[in-house]
Amino acid sequence: MSKKVNLLANLKSDFASGLVVFLVALPLCLGIAMASGAPLFSGIISGIIGGVVVGYLSQSHISVSGPAAGLTAIILTAITDLGAFDVFLTAVFIAGLLQLALGFLKAGSISNYFPTNVIEGMLAGIGVIIILKQIPHAFGYDADFEGNQSFAQNDGINSFSALFEVFNHIQLGAVVITLASLVILISWDKFSFLKKLKLVPGALVAVIIGIILNELFIQTGSSLAISKEHLVSLPIPQSFEEFKAIIVTPNFAGITNPQVWIVGLTIAIVASIETLLCIEASDRMDAQKRYTDTNIELKAQGIGNIVSSLLGGLPMTSVVVRSSANNNAGAKSKMSAIIHGVLLLLSVLAIPAILNKIPLATLATILILVGYKLAKPATFIHFWEKGKYQFVPFIATLVAVVATDLLKGVLLGIIISVIFILRGNLKRAYSFKKEQYVDGDIIHIDLAQEVSFLNKAAIKLTLSEIPENSNVIINAKDTVYISHDILDLIKEFKATRAVDENIKVKLKGFKKAYELENTPELTNHVTFEHYYDVAKRAMVKKEKFNEVYQN
């Protein structure tokens, strides 16, 4: 049973971090909805449900859920193919049910097999993406939507070429606000007298100063004034009827459409994998090193997507950017995620006009610092010092995440890690005790605990290079399992080449029965215990049993 957590125990720090996440999440929810071809409020609804519902049900203390950039292409295509947003919501409802089922089937345990260096590479890659994507916004160039993580942008350029395009669209007002925000954010962490104001996060102060500066520019008629298209753009319902129209419900008539089920399955799989990756990353970021039950997380995400679909929201996942901002802001428990959801709800109901005065340049500055903490140089140095088997999967994951997407990047990192593991196992299948070949030398080949068919090529090469007139001792005393392929290879070497080239072969730890008869019953395993069981079943006395072993 999980230990009951007092959500109010760290309310002071959780409220401050929830406020920061709210400021980060607001433009991301809107931007992802816009990129998905969905109503803008569907992104806000997803963020609210991700914060309040999933935040409450989840066991993760750091992660934050909401609409994810990784799903935008799937959502855009699905809405187009299905022909209506309400039919698409039915697919989201199905996706939630499937995720709920995956949780009960304990599919969350797959996250235990994500290598640490790959997860760290994913985080660093997300950090690089955030920095690349937010630099243009910091200079007042907002052609790309907030929350976009793809390398190739909708405006025909990519993340790198967009940096050069910035020089043609610099807004001095945005630069001034960016510099002011940067000074505030860095100072808030540096000076002790400011650190005491924990309830007032630096991000909120930066946002307030950004709004005040831009209002001064507007009131004085300055050329530094930032225009509406470079501010947060939250839809404002003018009447109760307009507000009611925001809530779209699923059209369950589409439940019989096979395409709806295919979309639902696709969303369930992609959203679940992204969630598991983010949960693993969030647990690594957690200063208290708490672990999340990933099966409960899948259930929470499933319920969240069901509720979101019923209220007209986008599908959601646990997301790295908001989770990183939450951790950096000092979150202690999942209460911060819940608070961010509540703030999203209250803000769209009560103060949308004020929120629409927030400059995107200020939010870009907040995110750039989040990105830096994810991809700081110390992380690169750490994995470089660990050696190539740790560094190569780390850097390959990072590059692939930036150049393609999160899932492809992680897949590449895992494939490289597996290749390195297999290569390492090949080398560790045996130890070869000899510095140079000289006729007549005694050559020791000590087999490892497990020797499988994967080791056949390496052992075969070693046996082929043993010179004539040598004495070879092949030792399997410590071996727990050895495959038939390896046993046959050794037997063939002893019976043919060793005889032809006067190579004396001594086997230690192998069964005599294998050497003489190679009976299937006695070659399945080379452990003493296994052969003893076989002998007992054959009603062989213990004395006879000991005789068949070669000492």
Automatic annotation (TrEMBL):
- Topology in the membrane? Multi-pass membrane protein
Which keywords are on file for this protein?
A: Membrane, Transmembrane, Transmembrane helix
Q: Which residues form the SLC26A/SulP transporter domain?
A: 11-397
Q: Where found, per UniProt?
A: Membrane
Q: Does the keyword Membrane apply?
A: yes
Where would you find the membrane-spanning parts of this chain? 15-33, 40-57, 69-102, 114-132, 169-187, 199-218, 260-281, 302-321, 333-351, 358-375, 395-422
- The superkingdom of the source organism is Bacteria
Q: What is its main location?
A: membrane
Q: What is this protein called?
A: SulP family inorganic anion transporter
State the organism named in the record. Answer: Flavobacterium flabelliforme
Q: What is the lineage of its organism?
A: Bacteria, Pseudomonadati, Bacteroidota, Flavobacteriia, Flavobacteriales
